[in-house]
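Hello forum,

I keep getting stuck at the same step: I have a sequence, I want structure tokens, and every attempt I make locally crashes halfway through. Rather than fight my setup again tonight, could one of you with a working pipeline run this one for me? It's a single chain of 111 residues.
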Amino acid sequence: MAEPRSITGTVVAICSVVVAVCAVLVTVKLLGADFTAAQQPRVFDQTALEQQVANRLQGVGDDSPGRVGCPAAVPVRADTEFKCHVWRHLHSDDVQVTVVNDLGEISVKHS
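Reply #2:
Ran it on my machine without issues. Output:
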């Protein structure tokens, strides 16, 4: 029968090899991972976006813009287009908003 010391030493050696192999596999997996996909896309703050649209419409047309409603979670990405609803004193309509660049500058046109 084998001595208990040699069996214990063999088990410890095998466990050490398994742990080392797992550590190498985890390291290789992490180094090869694409962490950019995990980042959330930048989106406009809805309240700030609505205020920015209202500011752009200030002085355009007969009535000043009253309330502006824009969609939530609009990505800050050039060429993104969406509509915002504008309520004026006597009527309401939609405006077409285009994101000009990745810095969040917008242009606003009447639909």
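Helices lie at 4-32, 46-57. If your local run keeps crashing, start a new thread with the error log.
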